[in-house]
TrEMBL record:
Protein name per its UniProtKB record: Uncharacterized protein
Highest taxon, organism lineage: Eukaryota
Disordered, as annotated region: 114-140
Pfam families, alphabetized: Retrotran_gag_2
Length: 140
């Protein structure tokens, strides 16, 4: 019986890592939650870190901003926080699609970070306060 449980646990863990978001966020989270419940029923609860990792791994490219944010704070997100953040991010994606605008994250990057213009000053090395090198970026 114990070997059957171990095999079942490994199968469920593999299945959880393979779940991809193909429908709504709610459907996606429900699929993950069902697998997590099945694992818990086998006395193998899923840790927050493993659950958050499973959420991240199944997302599409349009959730890159969410993934980057979670990875930057990995280990400090609970499962509940990650789910709430994902639902809010999904709502933001749908709102910006309806308005026909790029995601605010991309907008922020385009608006505030511009390459430093080289040239001017003495011998083409930049002005008095321009100390940037080849790939310098400045926050305007």
């Amino acid at each position: 019986m114990q070997s059957i449980s171990k095999t079942r646990i490994q199968g469920l863990k593999s299945h959880m890592r393979g779940i991809k978001k193909t429908g709504s966020v709610e459907e996606y989270l429900t699929k993950l939650r069902n697998v997590a419940k099945s694992l818990a029923a086998l006395d193998y609860p899923v840790s927050d870190d493993d659950y958050v990792q499973a959420i991240i791994e199944g997302l599409t490219k349009e959730y890159h901003g969410f993934t980057a944010s979670v990875m930057a704070k990995f280990g400090s997100f609970s499962t509940t926080e990650a789910k709430s953040f994902l639902q809010a991010y999904d709502e933001m994606i749908h709102q910006t699609k309806n308005l026909g605008q790029p995601l605010p994250v991309a907008n922020l990057t385009q608006q505030y970070f511009q390459p430093i213009q080289r040239g001017g000053g003495r011998r083409g090395r930049g002005g008095r306060f321009n100390r940037g090198g080849r790939n310098s970026w400045q926050n305007n």
